[in-house]
Amino acid sequence: MSDDAIDPSPQCSTVSVFPARPRLLVVDDEPLILEGLTRLLSTRDYDVVTAGGGCDALIAIGKQQFDAILLDLGMPDLNGAEVLRFVADRSADTPVIVVSGDSTIDAAIRALRGGAADFVRKPYEPEELLRRIDNTLARRRLEKENNLILLRLQQSEKWHRFLVNSSPDFIYTLDSEGRFTFVNDRVESLLGYRSEELLGQHYSLLVHEDDIARAEHVFNERRAGDRSARNAEIRLKCKPGVRRPRLMNGRCKSVELSATGMYDEDAGSFERRFIGSYGVAKDVTDRKQAEETVHYQAYHDLLTGLPNRALFRDHLGLMLAQAKRSQKPLAVLSLDLDHFKVINDSLGHAIGDELLLAVGARLRQCLREGDTLARLGGDEFAVLLPTLASRGDVEHICRKIIQVLSRPVYVKGHEIYVTVSIGACVAPEDGDMIDNLTRGAEIAMYQAKSRGRGRLQFWEPGMQAPYSERMQLEADLRRALARNEFVLFYQPQVDTVTGEVRGFEALLRWWHPQRGLLTPADFIPVAEESGVIVPIGDWVLRQASAQMADWHRAGLPQVRLSVNISARQLESPDFVDSVMRAMQIYALEGQQIELEITESLLMRDFEANAIKLGRLSASGVRLAIDDFGTGYSSFKYLSRFPIHTLKIDQSFVQGLDREENMSIVNAMIAMGRGMNLNVVAEGVETESQRARLQQMQCHEVQGYYYSAAVSSHDATALLGRNARGFGVAEQVAG
Q: 150, 158, 149: which is closest to 14 by C-alpha?
């Protein structure tokens, strides 16, 4: 066959190896995620098949072929790792993109090494996910086209040479002295060398200096058969002065090397002569970059690029060991921006993020070379100051930080002023353990806030006591649900005209085993900060729903039951599902449950909250704005949400004897009625207040004038006794 007969032209790849509409399998046990991904992928005209779990995925893979699979890792029936293994055995050529909320580095690395083509963390940017899918499908298309070429280029030495030179892998042979006798054309695009430049050169020319010892027994492998080297990872150097795209460090590539010894086949079995090595080096730079990216994300804050808590603790551990050897003190600083939540709530999270970036840049300017600055989360930063001469060094640096941050920050047209509270803990006099130093600095920082903010506070003995009490309260809270220590009380909401009970507000109480009955003010702030409020909120929803079901079975008048929702609950990804589950379990209609949310909470993430509340409202769930008048009081914003009830804060009701408060309350009621909202006044304690509110045409009132919050038993009796309306003589004492 002549050379002209070898035509490795694009004609070899024009046969269609990909359907007109790529078929994708999306595997996730969350219906909302499946729905969102289906909508997103439909914008690219993909043929999307969904599977609600690992078992469904295996069935789908058994029935049809897919061009790519989007796979969640954590699923209750069959996890993603098992699905990956099945795909590797059954459909090895189908690329799998793991889309997972598991943020640990081990999960990502296991997925990549388990055969995943890519790893995307939740939450993801839609455009980034689509780009990853497009790239994966493009790589698969190239692989399929390459496979087609392989089939056409069999049985011919010249065609085999074309195949070798067209391979995505670097293929070479060495003589018995380790010098190149053949290299394919891939070496030029991989390392920048032309093949003729390497012929006759020793293989060590390409090997990274730190990998020479490992390459000595792999690159020029003498063993053959099953004992030969497989997938040994080494680094190859690029040609000096030649820029190659997407390099790990600008100078080298990571490869997985497989090699085998070559022997003179014409010699006898006992006279076989070693003539050289044959090897294949697969470029794994992209995978190594992905692993390094995952590793970076595990130890750095993604917004500011600063070290996170884990890396800060590592640095602190190393510096503590060094300080013990050098007998020099070091300090840990805990920094927290004052009133940052107000900035986030009023200007939005985008402005807040820009402010944090600016603060991080200014903090770096105040520190010395060798100091460590970290962002621990939210508006909380930490600083490690090693090799101090005295406490005076700490005071000098902190004064500089406070002064630099006192200057205004300009973010997207906003002039923002921030102050910072700083707590300092010095080793070894305040402790020599990582946890003791970081906790001491945090406690000192909270003391700085309590003493006026915008200042430095050193750790002092005795500061621990109130925080130990808080930690004990948090520990008790975490056990309270399991021990069934929570209970709901109910306060009626009464029609101002008929006196009928229209609804109840469910109010949480805690029967603490040592401290007795606690009101929300005693424990809700700790529950919010610790995150325990989410399971507590779920319990309240279920308990309130169960109470409504009991009243319905008892044939009592139909009322609504209001439940307060916390910030952590609303921000929880499965908030909507938890509400719907509670209603389904107890067979409630939507209008029987009313969720109370404060104005400031609504504005924390306007768009996301509007979507969640819109879904609930579409299911019939009623929504109420609690403590109206104490936040934004914006009817323009309220019109964007599906609100049913407006609750006027008790501070306005209790001040109805003042003319200005009467005008404000009257205006609130009038505007609420104009928007067809049910208006409820809280904190009604006197007949005079009730009469004025009735005159203003307020729909309902709630307060001690009618009844304090009462137990489930008393609320049931109250509902039955007042089915025909409250009489003056029937009011329950507070």
A: 149
Can you tell me the distance from the alpha carbon of 381 to that of 383, in angstroms, rounded to the nearest whole number? 7
pLDDT band at 269 (very low <50, low <70, confident <90, very high): low
Which pair of tokens denotes residue 655? 């001040």
Burial 134-147 (b: 16+ CB within 10 A, else e): eebbebbeeebbbe
Look at the block and give the residue holding tokens 């013990």.
324
* 687 in the same domain as 593: yes
Q: Which pLDDT score, from 0 to 100, does residue 425 have? A: 94
At 680, give phi and psi (nearest 5°). Answer: -120, 130
Please compute the mean of the pLDDT values over residues 366-374 and round it to a whole number: 92
pLDDT at residue 243, as a whole number: 56
Mean pLDDT, the chain, whole residue set = 84
Residues 702, 568 share a domain: yes
Give the DSSP H/E element, type plus range, for residue 314.
helix 309-326
202 and 346 part of one domain: no
- CA neighbor of 261 nearest in space, from 280, 274, 244, 270: 274
Tell me how crowded residue 440 is: count the other CB atoms within 10 A of its CB.
27
Q: Which domain holds residue 388?
A: 325-461
Helix (H, G, I), strand (E, B) or coil at 92: coil
pLDDT digits (tens, 9 = 90+) for 655-687: 888 887 888 899 989 988 988 999 999 999 999
Polymer length of the chain = 734
Q: Is there a single domain that holds both residue 695 and residue 563?
A: yes
Give me the phi and psi of 646, to 5 degrees please.
-115, 120
In terms of Cα–Cα distance, which of 15, 126, 16 is closest to 67?
16
Residue type, 456: L
Written as six digits, the tokens of 7 are 């035509």
H or E segment at 511?
A: strand 501-512
Domain end residue (candidates: 152, 180, 206): 152
Average pLDDT over residues 115-137: 86
Q: Report the CATH number at residue 570.
A: 3.20.20.450
Output the pTM of the full model.
0.46
The answer to whether residues 206 and 246 belong to one domain is yes
Residue 361 sits in the same domain as residue 399: yes
| Separation between Cα atoms, residue 60 and residue 53, nearest integer Å | 11
Question: What is residue 601's DSSP assignment?
Answer: H
